[in-house]
């Protein structure tokens, strides 16, 4: 992929293709903020995420691989988050407390169809 294509492609497209790592998302967020009035897309659209995916990522920044796996498998995001949440609860690490709380609330606000 050329540098021009890399510059124009949404983060999530490049992440899916292995062109950028999870850490690269912060550069894209910074670029969106720097673009100011020149960028008309919302931040989720700029990153190549749905609003739902973006919300989950904001709640727990470690979820990018989960979001990608759900997309690739055609799995509803709610199901993928539920499985991830069960794993977090199973291990009961102190550092996961906030993510568990936030994702539990997200699940409650997003009932299955």
Protein described:
The chain is mainly α and 113 residues long. It folds into two domains: 1-49, no CATH class; 50-113, no CATH class. It contains eight helices and no strands. The longest helix is centred in the last third of the chain and has 15 residues, at 77-91.
Amino-to-carboxy terminus distance: 38 Å
**Overall average residue pLDDT:** 89
Determine the number of helices (DSSP H or I, runs of at least 4 residues): 8
Helix content: 55-70%
Concise overview:
It is built from 8 helices and no strands. The chain has 113 residues and is mainly α.
Sequence-ordered SSE layout with sheet pairings:
Elements: H1 3-8, H2 11-16, H3 25-35, H4 43-47, H5 51-59, H6 64-73, H7 77-91, H8 97-109
Helix pairs in contact: 6-7, 7-8
Features:
disordered N terminus, 0% strand, 2 domains, mainly alpha, single chain, 113 residues
């Amino acid at each position: 992929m050329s540098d021009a294509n890399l510059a124009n492609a949404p983060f999530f497209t490049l992440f899916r293709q292995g062109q950028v790592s999870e850490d690269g998302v912060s550069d894209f967020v910074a670029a969106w903020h720097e673009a100011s009035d020149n960028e008309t897309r919302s931040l989720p659209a700029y990153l190549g995420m749905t609003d739902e995916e973006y919300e989950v990522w904001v709640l727990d920044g470690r979820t990018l691989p989960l979001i990608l796996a759900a997309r690739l498998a055609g799995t509803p995001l709610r199901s993928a988050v539920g499985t991830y949440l069960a794993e977090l609860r199973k291990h009961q690490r102190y550092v996961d407390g906030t993510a568990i709380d936030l994702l539990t609330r997200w699940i409650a606000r997003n009932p299955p169809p």
